[in-house]
Amino acid sequence: MSEIAPAAQSTLLERMMRDTPPIAELIGFGVSEAAAGRAVVSIKTGPQHFNPMGTLHGGVLCDIADTAMGFAFASTLAVGESFTTIDLKISYLRPVREALLKAEGRVVQRGRTIGYVECDVTDASGKLVAKSSSTCMVLRGEQAVGR
């Protein structure tokens, strides 16, 4: 019987929490919590994140929501499983400039293969800035290798 490599014995979430995603470094956000179908991502936005209209670029909101939902979903996976996002939707509810934002992702429904995840992005006063959802598909076996 062959021995399983240590990296293969860890869950995807353990690897994700250990290795900062390159996009997090580029944009400047951090994952502070991820467990039991829930994850929290925070960012302090500034002029470097603005669009031509002088407000936060929607892609930044989408990135932090996607990350929160991905980490939340990853927290439901077993060793040897991975996932891919099938779709992602975001609704922008108010303009943002310089702010401390929190994206809180939560798994709403987790089946054997398909899961549905939602995320609320709020500002420091708790006002809802954006709402997002995604559908994720669990990958196993050969599909999960290298992911």
Plain-language structure description:
The chain is α+β, with helices and mostly antiparallel strands and 147 residues long. It has a single domain (6-144), classed as Hotdog Thioesterase (Thiol Ester Dehydrase, Chain A, Roll). The protein has helices at residues 6-9, 12-18, 22-27, 58-74, and strands spanning 29-35, 38-44, 82-92, 100-110, 114-122, 128-139. A 6-stranded antiparallel β-sheet has the order 1-2-4-5-6-3. A hairpin with a 5-residue loop joins strand 5 and strand 6.
Gyration radius from CA atoms, angstroms: 16 Å
Sheet having the most strands: 6 strands, antiparallel
The name of the CATH superfamily reads Hotdog Thioesterase
Distance from N terminus to C terminus (CA atoms, Å) equals: 24 Å
Class in CATH?
A: Alpha Beta
Order of helices and strands: HHHEEHEEEE
> Would you tell me the structural class of the helices and strands?
alpha+beta
Q: How many H/I helices?
A: 4
**Helix proportion range:** 10-25%
